[in-house]
């Protein structure tokens, strides 16, 4: 599988954000490794429950990444809705997916190491996942347990380097969908069946055994930074992703 976009153009965000049309996605990329002063400023705009979640992290590095990721999320949404960052109120689905009340703006967030990605659209369900290409993962063993037989066989047949990239590519496709529907990993990675023979277009054969479900989703994979891979999933019958891509910092 080589269906990965390596040429996304990350632009500087405009001074004012407009709500986009229904067929467009906005992708945002942020570096979470920021100065302590900025961490403090972002922490000040978080809600009480977000601050409590941050304090539960054992290591300062992980706590700071969480604060940065959630603070940046509030700042981005503030630009779309034209309200103060600290006034944004999130509600949460049964599996913890955040959403906005009284707004059609749909979003999802993912971060790995010091890279955070955000995906926004109007109306449609959307999910995003980013993973650092860790070489110390026993990809073939995890694939045998959680992927379909064809996906597992593909990974086992590859060299170690290609195993790592292909494994995390498939993982991000599956998790992006599960995050979009609000299930997360509990929904089961094996429920998303990927056509491993495709070389020109990322194709999902079936979702929960149903081809019709797969036809209602668009998946796009890309390289957000060296040694990372990501996929965005959107509930649409569009054939190609129409996105604007912004680098926050």
Task: Lay out the secondary structure.
Blueprint: E1 24-31, H1 36-43, H2 48-55, H3 60-81, E2 90-92, E3 98-100, E4 105-112, E5 115-122, E6 126-132, H4 139-146, H5 149-156, H6 160-180, E7 192-194, E8 204-207, H7 211-215, E9 218-222, E10 228-234, E11 242-247
Parallel strand pairs: 1-11
Antiparallel strand pairs: 1-5, 2-3, 4-5, 6-10, 7-8, 9-10
Helix pairs in contact: 1-3, 2-3, 4-5
Could you characterize what this model shows?
Helices cover 32% and strands 25% of the residues. It has 249 residues and is an alpha+beta fold. It has one domain (24-247): Ribosomal Protein L22, Chain A, CATH 3.90.470.20. Strands 4-5-1-11 form a four-stranded mixed beta sheet. A three-stranded antiparallel beta sheet has the order 6-10-9. The chain has a two-stranded antiparallel ribbon with strand order 2-3. A hairpin with a 5-residue loop joins strand 9 (218-222) and strand 10. Helix 1 crosses helix 3, helix 2 (48-55) packs antiparallel against helix 3 (60-81) and helix 4 (139-146) packs antiparallel against helix 5 (149-156). The two termini are 31 Å apart. The model has no long low-confidence stretch (mean pLDDT 90).
């Amino acid at each position: 599988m080589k269906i990965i976009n390596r040429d996304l153009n990350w632009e500087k965000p405009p001074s004012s954000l407009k709500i986009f049309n229904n067929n467009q996605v906005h992708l945002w990329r942020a570096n979470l490794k920021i100065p302590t002063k900025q961490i403090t400023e972002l922490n000040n705009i978080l809600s009480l429950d977000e601050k409590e979640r941050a304090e539960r992290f054992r290591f300062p590095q992980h706590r700071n990444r969480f604060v940065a990721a959630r603070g940046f999320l509030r700042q981005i949404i503030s630009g779309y809705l034209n309200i103060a960052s600290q006034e944004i109120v999130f509600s949460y689905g049964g599996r913890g997916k955040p959403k906005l009340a009284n707004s059609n703006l749909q979003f999802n967030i993912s971060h790995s190491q010091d890279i955070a990605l955000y995906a926004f659209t109007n109306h449609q369900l959307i999910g995003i996942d980013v993973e650092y290409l860790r070489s110390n993962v026993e990809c073939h063993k995890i694939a045998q347990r959680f992927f379909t037989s064809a996906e597992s066989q593909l990974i086992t047949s590859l060299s170690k380097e290609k195993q790592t990239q292909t494994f995390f590519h498939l993982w991000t496709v599956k998790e992006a969908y599960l995050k979009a529907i609000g299930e997360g990993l509990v929904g089961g990675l094996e429920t998303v069946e990927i056509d491993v023979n495709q070389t020109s277009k990322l194709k999902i054969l079936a979702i929960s055994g149903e081809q019709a479900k797969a036809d209602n989703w668009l998946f796009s994979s890309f390289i957000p930074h060296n040694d990372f891979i990501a996929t965005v999933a959107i509930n649409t019958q569009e054939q190609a992703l129409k996105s604007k891509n912004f680098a926050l910092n």
